Amino acid sequence: GITENDSVRVRPELHELTQALATLNALTDQFPHPDLTVLP
After folding, report:
1. DSSP 8-state code for residue 40
2. 33: domain range?
């Protein structure tokens, strides 16, 4: 089940996800792809 420790880790995981999305956006800017350019 979900423990307090899991709840504490949510924020770092969200931060890593945000960084991953930023990296993905940077890559799509360098290499435009028809299916990905619709993302904000």
Report:
1. -
2. 1-40
What is d(CA 39, CA 24) in angstroms, rounded to the nearest whole number? Answer: 10
Cα dist. 38→2, 21, 22, 34 in Å? 35, 14, 15, 8
At 24, which amino acid appears?
L
Closest-CA residue to 28 (of 38, 36, 20, 16): 36
What are the distances in angstroms from CA 37 to CA 4, 31, 33?
38, 10, 6
This prediction's pTM = 0.45
Tell which residue, 38, 11, 15, 36, has the closest CA to residue 24.
36
- Give 24's pLDDT tier (boundaries 50, 70, 90): confident
